[in-house]
Structure formats: C-alpha cells, structure tokens
Amino acid sequence: MRNLQVNGERLWASLMELARIGATEKGGVCRLAASDLDGQARRLLIRSCEEAGCSVRVDRIGNIFARRPGRDPGLALVMTGSHLDTQPTGGKFDGAYGVMAALEVVRTLNDVGYETQAPIEIVAWTNEEGSRFSPAMVGSGAFAGVFDLSKALARPDNVTGVTLGAELERIGFAGSDRVGGRPLKAYFEAHIEQGPILERLCSEQTLPFTARY
Ligand SMILES: [Zn+2]
C-alpha cells in the first residue's frame, strides 16, 4: 500500500468547527464534561462519524465509539481517539485534536477506499479532565476496569453536587452499552504537547528519534 496522507485542511476545519462549541473570548474553549456544550460537541462528532460511514454506539458512562468495519469482524479492534471535554480555561486542541485526528484517519481511508483487516473505532472518552467531576479519566478508567462504574456515575459535580450519571442522562448520553470488556489490538491517541519541552528538544534534535520520512 502506498503511504496515505491526511487532508490537513479538512482536519483544521473540523477542529475549528468543534472549537466554536464553548468558545471563550480569550480564544480558548470551556466545555465541561456532561454539560450542554459537551452534549453539542458529542452530537457534532456523531454526525461527522455517521457521515463518514461509521456506526456509533454509546456505553453506560457516555463513552462514544464510532466503528468503521474491517475485513475480519472477529479481529480485536484498533481504537483511536481522545476526549471532548475541557478545563474551564481549556484550549482548542487538548483532547479535540486526538478525536478529530481519528476522524481524519477514517476519512482518509474512505477517500482511497481502503479496507483494513481489523475494525477501527474512533473513541471520545467521558470526563477526561475531572475538573467538574473528579477524579479525571473516569470514562476510560471504567472502560479499562480501573474504576467501578456505579461509583464513577455517582461522582458529584464539584459545585452543584449533581451526579455525573444524572448529567449524562440529561444531555442524552447515558448509553446502554456495557462498559469495557472488549479486547483492543492497539490504541492510538494523538495529543498536543502543552509545554515547551518537546518543542525545544525537537529543535535541538536531542530526541532519540527525529521525524524524518
Ligand atoms: Zn487532554
């Protein structure tokens, strides 16, 4: 297979469309977990994934999985994604990049009509940040069996005390799928570096690897 190239302009447009949901005056994003804005972002993702031919499912803790079938449905799947929630003073790319990059990979495979062996799933994990409902990463943690599902759903909002489970229900994302228990072949998450260290190391070329192809 020849090397595939994603469409950078399309990925950028997806990121900018998502960044409008919860946009702040300072140019960042405030989209707290299980808020109305989180619900809007989730619906935008689902619409985009369905347009890309994926079938979408939501589990009981609101994790979203958009599946592009593979040649062999019996194979363990390849998963890629990140989170849509942000800190109160979040940015446009934290989490969003990993989710939209995953969507762009699927769109790129669609463009060339490439069929993978294993199914691919785009994932958006619930409440990665933990700024509204602590602790962080309860969606992925419950999926991995690290957090107990009922305890995770009972976590209270730091201010109002309303539970994560009630808020997921309210925004329409208390799904019915079992949480976790599915084998993954591989998991990829593209995530922005939020400090200067990686950039500096790259420019000094002191990393053990360099991005040359
Ligand atoms: Zn993040």
Low-confidence stretches: 207-213
**Strand sequence of the main sheet, in spatial order?**
1-2-4-3-5
The rounded distance between the terminal residues' Cα atoms is 16 Å
| Total of DSSP H or I helical runs spanning 4+ residues | 7
Bound molecules: zinc ion
Mean pLDDT: 93
Broad shape: globular
Helicity, in percent? Answer: 25-40%
- Per DSSP, what share of the residues sits in E-state strands of 2 or more residues? 5-15%
Helix and strand string, N-terminal first?
A: HHEEEHEHHHEH
Strand pairing plus helix content: what structural class? alpha/beta
Q: How is the main sheet built?
A: 5 strands, mixed
Count every beta strand, where a strand is a DSSP E run of 2 or more residues: 5
User: What's the alpha carbon Rg, rounded to whole Å?
Assistant: 18 Å
Describe the structure.
The chain is α/β, with parallel strands linked by helices and 213 residues long. It is built from seven helices and five strands; from the N terminus they run ααβββαβαααβα. It has helices at 8-19, 36-51, 96-111, 138-143, 149-153, 164-171, 197-204, and strands at 55-58, 64-68, 77-83, 120-125, 184-188. It is globular and about 55 Å long. 40% of the residues are buried. Zinc ion binds next to loops.
Give short descriptive properties of this protein:
213 residues; alpha/beta; 5-stranded mixed beta sheet; disordered C terminus; binds zinc ion
